[in-house]
Amino acid sequence: MKKVLLSLIVLGLSSFAYAAEKIAEGQVVRLDGSTISFAKLTDRIDQLVKAANVQGLTVAVFNDGLPVYSKAFGFADLPNKRPLKTTTEMYGASLSKAVFAALVMKLVGQGVIDLDKPLQSYLQEPLWKKQSDGDIEWHEDLSDLREAPRYRKITARMCLSHTTGLPNWRWFEPDHKLRIHFEPGERYSYSGEGMVLLQIVLEKLTGKSVEQLMRENIFTPYGMAMSSYTWQPRFERDYAMGHDTDGSTFPRDKDNAARAPSTLETTTEDYVRFMSAVLDGGGISEAARKEMFSPQIRIRSKTQFGPGAGEITDRYDDIQLSYGLGWGLFHTQYGWAAFKEGHHDEGFQNYSIVYPERGMGVLLMSNSNNAESIFGYLLSATIAEKEFPNDWGGYIPLDKGKLSE
Predict the structure, then answer these.
(1) Cβ-based burial of 60 (10 A; exposed 0-12, middle 13-18, buried ≥19)
(2) Which CATH superfamily is domain 2-402 in?
(3) Which of 58, 77, 232, 313 sits between 20 and 30 A of 330, alpha carbons compared?
(4) Mean of per-residue pLDDT scores for the chain
């Protein structure tokens, strides 16, 4: 808990005082008004981690927009018995998208870009045209869009709300080519490529890389000294290995080019700072923050990924499952909840959820392919959140028979 207190200094003295008070009380307040002591919560998490064979997990809980509980469980590297810490470097995967959305909303406030102006209109040359005589990264190759003129309708809002019509990644297409599957803005379909498109336009507009834009607008202002969209030498001191279900480790990927939707390297402490800033406004105007957490498009798909992503259903109408700008949304008896997952098949499974109107939230970061099986139980234990549609997210809960109450 000392580390949590120290990390809160960047949030200001009043925030520090509030967090200190909550930590002194030794309990978390949950959505339904009940409380759970730190000791009991730790015991419950320990039980879940062992039951599901989760090699490593960190859990942070927010009350009134501030972290009051933060703890690491298990190992950063199980074979070498290296313990996981809240300061250990973790692969954020698609948690990257929420951070990128915050950057974009700041740039909207600065007048750099408009949410509803077609991206192509910012550039003189067609987006699909190669802009450099040198080598480019694969994600910068937009040449396939020459045969997809509907790309000219795509806006920043569509990119952040996953309504561009672009695939998640071109590698999932049979021929590995970019194409637009429906009229931009028409419906929801998760797309990393859509956010890459926005990244490329912002880099051209500003003359700065996404890494530089993040450092100037997010990482430095929020005190995220151990975060980057590319691997940094300072991460070598303590980083997490991804674990498969049997506890074996995957080689750590350290050569990714910076991609706004997917390559964030961070720590639990840094991402806690990000979530605290988002809950508090974090230099984003109140109007922009409201826009970010407001439904942009209703989600009608049976599942987020896989075959069910193409099936239409009314199963989630009761919770108004939707997408905002960079965050998924659903409505509960406690108000709107905003969530963002981060999944990588090579052993990293993350989940974040905030209730902006209540200042409550949870951050789960894991370096284990077993972790998602207990995410529902962890949300219930921490803040009594029980309404997230696990089946839509593709989470298969651990058999309750393996748990003891």
Answers:
(1) buried
(2) DD-peptidase/beta-lactamase superfamily (3.40.710.10)
(3) 58
(4) 93
Look at residue 3 and tell me whether its pLDDT is greater than 60: no
Q: How far apart are the first and last CA of the chain?
A: 26
Percent of the chain at pLDDT above 90?
87
CA atoms within 13 A on the CB side of 35: 13
Comparing CA positions, the residue from 111, 178, 94, 95 lying closest to residue 138 is 178
299, 322 contact by CB (below 8 A): yes
CA 242, CA 342: separation in Å to the nearest integer? 13
- Extract the tokens encoding 388: 């997230």
Distance of CA 222 to the CA centre of its chain: 16
The pLDDT of residue 18: 52
Asked if 342 and 392 touch (Cβ cutoff 8 Å), the reply is no
The residue assigned the tokens 């105007």 is 285
| pLDDT score at 132 | 63
Task: Fill in the amino acid letter for 381.
Answer: A
Q: In sequence order, what are the beta bridge partners of 365? A: 58, 350
